[in-house]
Specification:
Layout lengths: L17 H4 L4 H4 L4 E5 L5 E4 L6 E5 L4 E6 L2 H7 L3 H7 L2 H9 L8 E5 L14 E5 H15 L17
Antiparallel strand pairs: 1-2, 2-3, 3-4, 5-6
InterPro entries: T6SS_Tdi1_C (IPR015002)
Protein name: DUF1851 domain-containing protein
Pfam family, one: T6SS_Tdi1_C
């Protein structure tokens, strides 16, 4: 089975409130981040404020990485197999796609227990999760652990689910 870039992306339907999707990531992105593309593993490509740069928002590791100076360069990078494999977590989601697993509309493949909290980083640890819930919860978790020194044991997290 051939896996295409379309198979690795979440369709952003017109009813989706893109403006609020990254509200719980503002601690990292700042206000006004615009979602350009979302991978089925829950990571996002965004532009910040009024800037033209394109960033990869790694929602598993809680980091923001510049990947292109503008939309044209970003589109060009989508033709790079290594770039796509890394940013769309091909190694994790390809086995699911090859098995014929399909996500419900508006969902992503997310880790049952986030790796930042000690969860495994393998395909068997993924489950379908509502996109908005995933982005909100992962943003809250990373915001709470971002300032902790390395090696600190996390004993209590507080999450807001609407």
């Amino acid at each position: 089975m051939t896996i295409t870039l379309e198979d690795l992306c979440v369709a952003l339907d017109q009813d989706l409130d893109r403006a609020s999707l990254l509200a719980d990531w503002e601690w990292l992105t700042g206000p006004g981040a615009r979602v350009l593309m979302l991978g089925v593993a829950g990571d996002a490509f965004v532009q910040l404020g009024q800037g033209q740069d394109v960033y990869f928002l790694d929602c598993v590791d809680g980091v923001l990485e510049k990947v292109a100076d503008d939309l044209g360069e970003f589109l060009q990078r989508l033709g790079d197999v290594d770039f796509v494999a890394h940013c769309f977590r091909y190694d994790l989601v390809a086995p699911l796609l090859r098995e014929g697993a399909r996500l419900p509309e508006g969902s992503v493949w997310a880790f049952r227990v986030p790796p930042v909290l000690g969860g495994a980083r393998d395909t068997a640890a993924l489950e379908p999760t509502a996109l908005a819930d995933y982005l909100s919860l992962s943003g809250q978790i990373h915001a709470q652990v971002a300032a902790l020194p390395p090696g600190v044991t996390v004993g209590d997290l507080s999450l807001a689910v609407e």
